[in-house]
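Quick check before the chapter quiz. The format below is the same one you will see on the exam, so make sure you can read both the input and the output lines.
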Amino acid sequence: MPPPAALEPVTPDPRKLRLTAFILVAVMILGGGLILNAYNRYNANQADNDRPAMPTNRLTGEKDLPLLRQDGTKAGLFDLAGKITVLQTLSAGNPESSARTNEVMRRISEHYAAQPDCVLVSLVLDPGPPEKATATLAAAAAAMGAKLPQWWIATTEPKILHKYVKKELKAGVFPHEKDGKWSHDTSIVLVDRNRIIRQPVVPQKRGGQPWVGPFDFDQAAGWDARGVKSGTGRTNSEELELLLIKTIDELLVETVKKS
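Here is the expected output.
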């Protein structure tokens, strides 16, 4: 018995199928063009955007780092909430491992000597025996020219400190000693008033995404040694230090946001 007419298969109309296919292709092309234009506009805007980036981490009170400072007093890193904090790691036994960064920290301390909202912190990775830690910090502070309250030379139990540096400060190298020398990330870490780690942003002259990277003065010195030009008449090291100052200045005018 033949099926009812309503259930008989319908023969497709080739003209209608072609028309539908053309419409779908046109919609795809138009949509792709709109997306591409939006992407290009975004890239153009981002290429000129030199505001400090916020891609890494936020320090919280729950993960505070209790510290012993060069005068024997104790404080927490989170006590600096609301201020701009310029951090580095330092070896008391091998200060030459961060010689370039040490010099930058000295100049930053001089540049912001009259700015109480900019505080420097040098975290000493190798304080020695607990009973000698304060003397170690005091000696390092004297060598660096660091004075409280502007510049902390501080430490805590090494295992805690090394883990904090790697996990919370996002160091590229886990601090460790090898053959009597310390290996650690010598980059400067910049923390804003809201405890967010910020990084430098360099717009690209030819367009595209801006460069975002660490305040790594050893890396910049390496570029200079290889003859890489900054394009400004200054060395890459000089350019990075100017960028650090510019970023600090921008962060100083930002306000503390309520949690």
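If your answer matched, good. Residues 127 and 133 are 5 Å apart (CA to CA).
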